[in-house]
Structure formats: C-alpha cells, structure tokens
Design brief:
Length: 208
C-alpha cells in the first residue's frame, strides 16, 4: 500500500514537471465522455437553437435549425398553399446550407476526432462566430431590399446549426439532439423504464 502511494505521488509530480505545451496538447486531445457538463452544454445549445428559429422565422419566414419545419414549408409552398408568405428560395437556401454545415463539420469531426476536447472547443467557437457574423449582417447590412442580404444571414445561421446538430449526434448522447424534438417525444413515451427512479436517458429527454 505504501509503495502504491509513493508511485502515485511520483506520477503526479512527473505530470506537473511536463512542459505546459505537452500538458495542453494532452488536454486538447483527451476524449470526453457523456458526463453532466456535456449534457448541460447540449441543453444550452438546444435553447440557443430555439432562440435561433424564434428570431429568424418572423423576419424571413424560414427556420435556421428546425429543418423538419422547413421541409413542411417546402411541401406546402410547392403546392401553392402559402403563396406570398413563404419564399421557397429562402427555405431551400436554409435547408441546403444546413445539410452542407452538417457535412463539413461531420466529416472534419470524423477526421480530427469527434469526441476530442480540442475539436469540440474549436467547432463550438466557430459556430458561435457564424452566429455573430449573422447578427452583424442583420444589423448593418440586411436592411437593403435585395435578397442577397437575407440569404447571407440565413446561410450563416443554417450552416452553424448544421454543424451543431452534427456535433450533438456524434458524441454518444442520442437523447439530446439539440434541434429535433419529435423523436425525443416518442423515445420518452416508449421507454420501458420511464417510471424508474434512476433513469438518466429519461431525464435527458425530459429536460431537452
């Protein structure tokens, strides 16, 4: 026992002696697991996705995150049910940029390590930057009458949202998709352990 404690102390001292660059690299390359801080982050992203759609739909009649809604709008717009209300070009633009964002971030995450702390930090910072760019465009540029200004805002938000959902779907927390709630509703009610006292999956879906 004493020898084990001595070895642990030596290991801790050796880790502190490592250069800061080595420790930082190990920290960023560390693979994270589905713990409480990650769940809290995903919940915050889900809230942000809701705010995102709540701000884009009144201005552009299109969703940036909820592509199920965009698909429905695309269908009813094609049938001519909502003529003059929904611009199908905006809907198609949002849907296309969302898919592109999911593809780009998903493939890059697969290459760099989708569960590595460094990649998750980078992708979240980059997605946040796209949101700030969209806000700046909305405030200072998107007042013009041409359609390109609206497409610029929609593109930034939809592209970032695609990356967000791609990240959320690849880190082993399937109960929190951050965007689509339909499957979460069904997964909750079909859970055979829905009334069990300790059921983390159920708790995730309820809070989501």
């Amino acid at each position: 026992m004493a020898n084990d404690r001595d070895c642990d102390r030596k290991s801790n001292r050796n880790s502190h002696r490592k250069p800061i660059g080595t420790r930082l690299k190990a920290y960023l390359l560390h693979t994270i697991g589905p713990d409480l801080p990650l769940e809290v982050e995903l919940m915050a992203l889900a809230l942000a996705a809701g705010i995102n759609d709540a701000t884009t739909f009144p201005d552009y009649h299109v969703f940036a995150s909820n592509q199920t809604g965009n698909t429905a709008l695309l269908a009813v717009g094609t049938l001519g049910i909502v003529n003059g209300i929904v611009d199908l070009r905006d809907v198609g633009f949002s849907l296309g940029m969302f898919v592109l964002g999911g593809y780009v971030f998903g493939q890059l995450g697969d290459y760099f390590g989708r569960k590595r702390r460094g990649w998750l930090l980078f992708t979240n910072i980059l997605q946040t930057a796209f949101v700030y760019v969209a806000a700046a465009l909305r405030k200072w540029v998107a007042r013009s009458s041409d359609q390109s200004s609206a497409w610029s805002v929609i593109s930034c938000l939809a592209f970032a949202s695609g990356g967000q959902v791609a990240m959320a779907r690849t880190i082993n927390v399937p109960e929190i998709t951050t965007a689509m709630v339909t499957s979460a509703y069904i997964d909750l009610v079909v859970d055979p352990s829905i009334f069990r006292l300790h059921n983390r999956s159920r708790n995730r879906r309820v809070f989501f």
